[in-house]
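Tokens for G protein-coupled receptor 182. Go.
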Amino acid sequence: LQNMTLHNHSLDFLNGTPWFVFECTLDLDANYRRICLFLMYLFIFMVGLLENLLVVWVNWRRRHSANGVLFCIINVSLSDLMVIVILPFFMMEVTMDQVWLWGRFLCKVTNLIYVVNFYSSSFFLALMTLERYLSLSRPSSSSFFPVGGRQRWLVCGGVWALSLFLALLENVHVDLLEWEEPGCYMLPEYNYTEWFVSVTFLCLIFQFLGPAAVIITCNVLIARAAQTAPDVRSRRDVWLVHVYSLVFVMCWLPYHLVIFFMIIDDLDPYLFSCNTVEGLYFSFSVVQSISLLHCVANPFLYNFLSKSFRNNLINTVLNYIPREGTTDQVGAEAGARARAKANTANNGGGDPGKLSNASTSQSDVGS
């Protein structure tokens, strides 16, 4: 939530020094930011909801396949859908200038959902990239996600449980507080600085640095393998792998940089000028909304760029179109052609060790 992290503007609770001893000359338009945030959340809600519902709808029938990449893709979309469904609360909160009108229960629940997605989405993206690399480099070895149903669901449950545990470390300090207006805040009663620094470093390591290291390293190795493969027809397939890494970094790096400088300001309130501090806290909600763009980017990158997914989408849609008389015969022929095309695409990616024209797309591997 946008106002989950409080800054000591009205009074520095850490050292008792009023913030106004510093001179602030920075004039920032909060109304313009409010409009931009509302439009950003509306875009993410509408586009992200449609994209992720389509991804789950098309891929859910194949969730029991041996393809670990596909299994991770479904979990990423489910994670993104979780945060998308609570975006209307974000939108209304922004519109009312951080006033929270939905009670203590929804205050804690919406924050918990947001932070669980914060971790789980990155974890499953990292595991998907690792699974992708292992399937290409060691096609004869076992999958990182076990083929067996029970073992696979145990691994999946472990990832969700770790995400929930890390989210609860933060959520225990979230509550509905009332000053002039009710607000949903994240503010521990004691040891604010120590707690904030600890939780922020956990976020930095587990949500960004760790997954980014796995994603970037594996994608670089995949790109090198693609460059030497004889059946890769264009450089687009190689560069697409690097786009996966670039999008992840672009979504999350601004957020973690701002948070990092906020930690420094808490540890040493006299290091930055007042204008710098005002700019940091003004931009926090902006970079937070930018980070949520991963809910829109992930389905497009990992699904809609895949020939296999597009063919399965067409095939699924055709199966739900009612057909009568001659229309039924034409539709059946079209459906048969679509299924044949999908099977061809799937068979082209069926060998995890083989690099085909579209195999640099994550969802084409073993699909």
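The first strand starts at residue 174 and ends at 178.
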